[in-house]
Design a protein that fits this description.
36% of the residues lie in helices and 26% in strands. It contains 9 helices and 11 strands.
Length: 220
């Protein structure tokens, strides 16, 4: 399978971290920034780097943003530069555009431009950390879309010894138990049988809305 190809426009702290992670995951990444110092930091770590002004439409056309799997726009706090770059990428036929948001108004404008996703790194990290600290039984959290997410959490003490049918989490909370993981061996049981009996060394992978999962998290 051919490696996925991405362009990261703007190599600040977020863009650099993203480019490195994509590269680590086996992707071909082109990083573009007008600052030579930022380019020098990652030029030996990612597939390709370009020193250029990413707000210049001709630059985006030359690097052929329409041919890659996705374009990431990460331009710090300058909303006008971010919007201009996003507009050019959209008009040049980029398949997917993901943009680092600055604030709520920036996000609304990006939505009107039709970007696939707007990322607020500090807010998302703060929310994730807050959830982990407030709900220590939740080990992992994976948003699927704006409505549904999957959480991995320890079996609540009140459910230990009961079968899935007896615990009746679907009826009580509206969540679906997609899998059960053995915390010691890591063995995963996908779509477990209703008669499966829960133990205190198991983890549940539950699918639901935020409201449904929040109620499940409160279960002792």
């Amino acid at each position: 399978m051919a490696a996925k190809k991405f362009v990261v426009l703007g190599l600040g702290s977020f863009g650099t971290a993203l480019a490195r992670r994509l590269t680590k995951n086996g992707c071909q990444v082109m990083g573009v920034d007008i600052d030579r110092g930022r380019i020098d930091i990652v030029k030996d770590e990612i597939y390709e780097t370009v020193i250029a002004n990413v707000t210049d439409r001709n630059v985006l056309e030359e690097i052929d943003v329409k041919s890659v799997d996705a374009v990431f726009v990460s331009l710090g706090k300058d909303i006008s530069q971010s919007l201009l770059t996003t507009l050019h990428a959209k008009e040049l036929g980029a398949k997917r555009i993901i943009v680092k948001g600055v604030n709520a108004d920036h996000g609304k404008l990006l939505e009107h431009l039709g970007v696939e996703r707007i990322v607020f790194p500090e807010l998302e990290m703060a929310n994730e950390l807050g959830d982990r600290m407030a709900w220590p039984n939740v080990l992992d959290f994976l948003p699927i879309d704006p409505t549904y997410s999957i959480v991995e959490l320890a079996v609540p003490g009140s459910c230990v010894g009961f079968s899935l049918q007896e615990a009746d989490l679907r009826k009580r909370f509206g969540v679906w138990i997609m899998a059960i993981k053995d915390a010691l061996s890591g063995k995963l049981m996908v779509l477990p049988d209703a008669e499966h009996r829960l133990t205190d060394d198991q983890l549940l992978l539950a699918l639901g809305t935020k409201e449904q999962l929040d109620k499940l998290r409160l279960l002792k």
